[in-house]
Amino acid sequence: MRTIANELKAQGLQVINFAAGELDVDTDELVKEGARKAIDGGHNIYTPTLGLPELRKQVAALVTRHAGVAYAHNEVGLTAGAKQALYNAAMVLIDPEDEVIIPAPYWVTFPTQVELAQGRPVFVDTRPHGYQLLASDVQRAITPRTRALILNTPNNPTGAVYGREELAKIAALAIEHDFWVIFDECYASLVRAGHRHKHILAIEPRLKERAVLVNSFSKSHALTGWRLGYVAAPAEVIKAMENLQGHTTSNPSSVAQYAVSHALAHDDGSFIAAINRALDERLRQALAIVADMPEVKVAPPQGAFYLFLDISAHLGRRLGDLVVADVDQFCELALREAQIALVSGAAFGDPSSVRVSYAIAPGDVVEGLHRLRRLLQRLR
Ligand SMILES: Cc1ncc(COP(=O)(O)O)c(C=O)c1O
Q: How far is residue 343's CA from residue 9's CA, in Å, rounded to a whole number?
């Protein structure tokens, strides 16, 4: 898709990229200030593997505030993005043939990491319930080999924010059947107006000894490229992760750590609040256009910055001689015919949908969705 997009751009066509998994804004000025200080202060050497002691304390305080359960500095660790935190979790917790329950649609990396640890992903379909995960469906997926459940709320790709009641029941299942809950809350700071991220530990504090909390500054501070995330878990799990990380990547970027430490010390919440306001407005405009798309279903997202559009009614239709057999083909057609880059739902385990990021320039959101609407109207 990227090759086609580049070809089209070389022909002078304006390609609208709905595929990015990141915010389109510059990082917080506080982060830049902290980075400049770190560079000028000569902080060019290794830090401890799981991060600067001061930052670990700050992160422990942050997690304590969000989870409503006390975390100490030896129960948290800094990683090169949430991705490394998840990878560490997979490697230290999953043995060959262990089963890991993953709600589908899912973020692409989850099943692959489970497979890298030689575990087996077991998918639970959330589509029948507007992408909400039901505890009863989790219960049906549990076997004696169940080792973990990966929860991602707010969700990529669907934008669902899981509700309190189901989270409470899911936490009870994890305690009863003794499996880990890997709680990926990378988008916790990005919730749409009228919604709130619900923390599973705030709902069920007893889950702490079975919980691995994964978060990241990638989205909350718009610094995906700087690579800084974190994990919170029981101290012995963090220790195992330290051993693994010490022999794989060592510490995450020292400059990024100093930068975020400075930002956390001075953060007043205004950076992310402005982003959320802008995203609320973009989503409002986007949903108005989607409402006019023929036979497209959407569950209005409650968090993150994606629209997950069910276009299954259009699969099997034609544009001229071309039959749009599946969603991958639809994405290629959308790029060639309408110069819009979408992400195929097949990558997320849902071959009926496409993912659209609305965290791009407001004009592009509107123009790109109109192009999509016109393309769908041409299919017969
Ligand atoms: C659900 C989810 N988890 C984890 C990540 C990884 O984030 P990071 O950039 O912090 O590694 C992403 C990135 O898009 C994501 O969508």
A: 18
